[in-house]
Amino acid sequence: MAPREPTEPGEARDHPPPKRPLRILVVDDDRDAVLTLSALLKQDGHEVFEAYGGGGVLSLVRSREPDAVLLDIGMPGATGFEIARELRLRLGRSCPALIAITAWTQPAAREMGRLSGFNHYLTKPYTVAELRVLLASLPPTTR
User: Fold this and answer.
1) Per-residue pLDDT of the chain (143 residues; tens, 9 = 90+)
2) Nearest-angstrom CA–CA distance, 27 and 33
3) 34 closest CA partner among 62, 87, 7, 72
4) From residue 121, how far is each of 17, 106, 118 by CA, in Å?
5) Neighbours of 85 (CB within 10 A)
6) Vertex 97, ends 86 and 100: CA angle to 5°?
7) How many CA atoms lie within 13 A of 64 on its CB side?
8) d(CA 103, CA 124)
9) How far is CA 15 from the centre of its chain?
10) What predicted TM-score, i.e. pTM, was given to this entire model?
11) CA geometry: angle 19, 21, 26, nearest 5 deg
């Protein structure tokens, strides 16, 4: 599911694209969701890498060194929770910011996200403004 368009007048304009471009890995088993989110992020000036499902995410993170990973939770094979735990375990302090992008809104799922190592938990549908604010809040990296 792609970010929803602003519903309030000026909503996206009130939160312009971040001043510094980020390197972002988008991971989702829904190809349309990946392409839509990637296009939005590229429009905002970010460098974007794409993965269609959880396979090979660790390798991509190591080779591309993203500042953030936008990771769907409900994927077949390896869930976003499992991938986040693996990234935290294998990369330690060099792990990029992990942002869950999911329709799972239950408190138990949010807690599982926290325990799995996600820095942020963004629920679908989210707005472009919400995503921009979240990305702008990420601390600078040394990557």
Assistant:
1) 555 444 444 444 555 666 789 999 999 999 999 999 999 999 999 999 999 998 899 999 999 999 999 999 999 989 999 999 999 999 998 999 999 999 999 999 999 999 999 999 999 999 999 999 999 999 877 55
2) 9
3) 72
4) 20, 11, 7
5) 17
6) 75
7) 21
8) 5
9) 18
10) 0.87
11) 130
Q: What is the CA radius of gyration of the chain?
A: 14
Residue 20, pLDDT score: 85
31: number of CA atoms within 13 Å, CB side? 0
Residues 122, 131: Cα–Cα separation, whole Å: 8
- Return d(Cα 11, Cα 16) in angstroms, integer: 9
> Which amino acid would we find at residue 18?
P
Any residues with CB less than 8 A from the CB of 115 and at least 6 apart, and which? Answer: none
User: CA-CA distances (angstroms) from residue 7 to 10, 36, 58, 101, 102?
Assistant: 9, 18, 36, 20, 20
